[in-house]
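Input sequence (167 aa), recorded before submission:
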Amino acid sequence: MNADELRAVQAPLKQAYRNRPDAARVVSRAEGSLDRNDIAVNVDAWHGTVVAGLHKAGGGSGELACSADMLLEALVGCAGVTLRAVATAMGVTVHSGKVIAEGVWDARGTLGVDRAAPVGLSEITLRFEVDCDADAAKLERMIQTTERYCVILQTLKAPPRIAMEIV
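Predicted structure, token format:
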């Protein structure tokens, strides 16, 4: 897809959202079923089921998906798609590239070993390795624009209000 094709696809959407802002509110949803026999959950993913379980640092075998890794995978997916869209809109040819996310968490927190230890990822590094025809300044603008419009990155930077319910 080139910049003109991208604009053509997005233009009617942008106009519809300007005319009816409520139409721009998208509901995303994820669902999983608790495993009866293991400390695991079967997550209905886009293209099949992913079984998430305990990380090795928390007593798991390492054979099941780690939820922290899944979060980082969502960040990589969103940042990568956003970067490609931004590059396309800016007329930049991307020859190849990678998006890499690394996060650090302290197993003492989630295992209750040390109440002062945080529960959750406390550091995330998002790295872009891009081979493209943009100069350094244009590449920097691409990364800044990607940061601005990446849904998952912005969600992590400004966490939403989360409500929990028991049914």
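Checked by second reader. Residues 66-159 form a domain with the GMP Synthetase; Chain A, domain 3 fold (CATH 3.30.300.20).
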